[in-house]
Amino acid sequence: MAPSESALMTPDQLVQQHGITRVLAFGAHPDDIDFGAAGTIAGLTASGVEVTVCLLTSGDAGGFELGRDSAEMARLREVEQCEASALLGVHDVIVLDERDGFVRPTDELVGKIVRVMRQVRPEVVISPHPERAWDRLQKSHPDHMACGEAVVRAAYPYVENPFAYPELQAAGLEAFKIGHLLLTTAPQHQVNLRLDVTGQEAVKMAALRQHFSQHPDAERMEGFVLDQMREIHAGDGFAEEFHWVTVNAPDTISGF
């Protein structure tokens, strides 16, 4: 069942409604997932859901301090992500080897994502949205959109097609069907789900603080994020917003 337009529910209600036990969250860079969905992920793990994080890049082109080489920045940002994820109850962080700033939804990258999906076998996949959000262009970094496009292609049809990437099937990573996508950074006209994460806002801020290499003014960043969460909630609380997409429902016919 799809949520009604701009529905507001808690992560636990989403878990109970859809029987969610495993979630796989993709980001182009360290901190992408935490900006978009840290409160939701904290709520999911609190409800007993196993969450895995997969980054396409190490974020080696990020940061505001000159003088760090890219290898040092990559190592630092991977550590920051692991520490941030641990605060949310996530202990499995996978990092792929795409180049920060130059992510493209190639067949090779889609295959890497399919491999991770078949290893984790989640019911729900979190990812940046593949469409540009003109309301706030900073959400739509080209790497974010490329990550979203590659994840959506992997989610359908490739992860469920045993004839796609046959080397994965031969290695015992069998095809399966993903239930839903939970897309962050969505254009406003695509937002159809708001998750009430009131009570998780502090752990979200704590997770974002772990990405200290990216925030020359952490106080201003926190204020901006909290104000956004209050606006999304539209009440006395904090929320995160998504485009919820059903890939496979009980009545879905492949190809239609």
TrEMBL record:
Keyword line: Zinc
Pfam family, one: PIG-L
Gene3D superfamilies, per the entry: LmbE-like
SUPFAM superfamilies: LmbE-like (SSF102588)
PANTHER family the UniProt entry points to: LMBE FAMILY PROTEIN, N-ACETYLGLUCOSAMINYL-PHOSPHATIDYLINOSITOL DE-N-ACETYLASE-RELATED
Protein name per Swiss-Prot or TrEMBL: LmbE family N-acetylglucosaminyl deacetylase
